[in-house]
Amino acid sequence: MAASSYGEALARLLVHEGGNDDDPRDPGGRTSRGILQREWDVWRRSHPGLPADVWRAPQDQVEAVYRQNYWDALRCDDLPAGVDYAVFDYGVNSGIGRAAKVLQRLVATAVDGEVGPDTVAAAKRAKAAALIEAICDERLAFLQGLRTWPTFGKGWSRRVREVRAGALKMAKSAGVKSAGDKPPRAAQSTSAASAKDREPPARFARRLGIGTGVVAAIGAAAHWAGSHPILTAGAVVIAALVVLVVVRRFAKGD
User: Do 61 and 47 form a contact (C-beta atoms < 8 A)?
Assistant: First the structure.
């Protein structure tokens, strides 16, 4: 199983989600490092002892929220590198339901908002770079249609642009590493192998115990037969006798 990209994806996401915010123009309301106050309140119900104000949320708990509620919920560990980050960041910014449905539409699986084995398999079959481009294109088009685009559009545009570049870089890096895991072995050509293993004729003849005179006689017989086509039948008989002598000698051994 490939190593998780969560650490890198989270670091990239926090570049855009770092700090505290309570902008009255933002429908999300009070947030800290991208975690909404209402989302933090839900988290605290199963994690007692944490501070009530999301601005005071411990960093490890913020990272745990992102891991459980976004990364794991979208099955990002099972998605191709780069695609995982693009889907994760989309889910944080616009909701995991929307991010999942966009992914499902793009890979042509059932659109139910739940990333399952069919969606994962289809995402793995897709070309990662093309899928990343399509996710980011759809995301930007969606954001441009929101009524808050005039207020936050510049920042969203920069974020999508940077997510696109980062995701493509992750996908490319993963491809290079994958190719490097098993370097292709150059197949030795048959002709090269034959040339390497071929024994010089003279040495081969000596190993068989054939004198150089016999070898020369065989060559001369073949040349003579080619020069006298009318007498070819007779030449073949002579050559056959020579070969018979050679074979009998070889059978007796050195």
Answer: yes
Measured CA to CA, the distance from residue 221 to residue 90 in angstroms comes to 84
Neighbours of 87 (CB within 10 A): 29
Q: Are 55 and 77 in contact (CB under 8 A)?
A: no
Class in CATH terms, 6-181? mainly alpha
User: What does the block give as tokens for 36?
Assistant: 């909404």
Model confidence pLDDT, tens digit, residues 175-191: 755 444 443 444 444 34
Q: What is the pTM of this model?
A: 0.69
164 contacts 10 by C-beta, under 8 angstroms: no
Q: Closest Cα to residue 96, out of 126, 123, 65?
A: 65
Query: What average pLDDT does range 198-204 have in this prediction?
Result: 44
Q: In the chain, what are the domain boundaries?
A: 6-181, 200-252
Which two tokens mark 32? 């800290």
Transcribe 55-123 into DSSP letters.
GG--HHHHHHHHIIIIIITTTGGGSPTTHHHHHHHHHHHH-HHHHHHHHHHHHTS--SS---HHHHHHH
Q: Are 236 and 221 in contact (CB under 8 A)?
A: no
